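User: Design a sequence. Structure:
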């Protein structure tokens, strides 16, 4: 699985929640596993290609919602030696925090 963090910012807007809400609806329609955080959205998909297709669609959606300029940032974790999921990464850290 590929874990991807992305941020889409319609520049010049004071509140982003309506844009984020529409992107989340898009992810839900597509059946994409996601985690919304206060600063970004994280998705888990089988391939980098699929991630970029989804992010491109979300980027374009932001324009359709009225944005005139959009900045999108993407970070990819593509581990190929074994399958990892979002919650695996968090669990690994929390085990270390708790001394496990």
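Assistant: Done.
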């Amino acid at each position: 699985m590929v874990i991807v963090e992305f941020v889409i910012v319609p520049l010049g807007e004071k509140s982003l929640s309506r844009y984020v809400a529409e992107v989340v609806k898009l992810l839900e329609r597509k059946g994409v596993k996601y985690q919304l955080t206060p600063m970004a959205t994280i998705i888990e998909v089988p391939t980098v290609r699929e991630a970029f297709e989804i992010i491109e669609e979300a980027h374009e959606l932001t324009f359709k919602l009225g944005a005139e300029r959009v900045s999108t940032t993407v970070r990819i974790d593509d581990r190929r030696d074994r399958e990892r999921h979002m919650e695996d990464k968090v669990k690994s850290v929390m085990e270390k925090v708790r001394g496990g």
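The beta strands are 2-10, 33-36, 41-45, 70-78. The CA atoms of residues 2 and 49 lie 10 Å apart.
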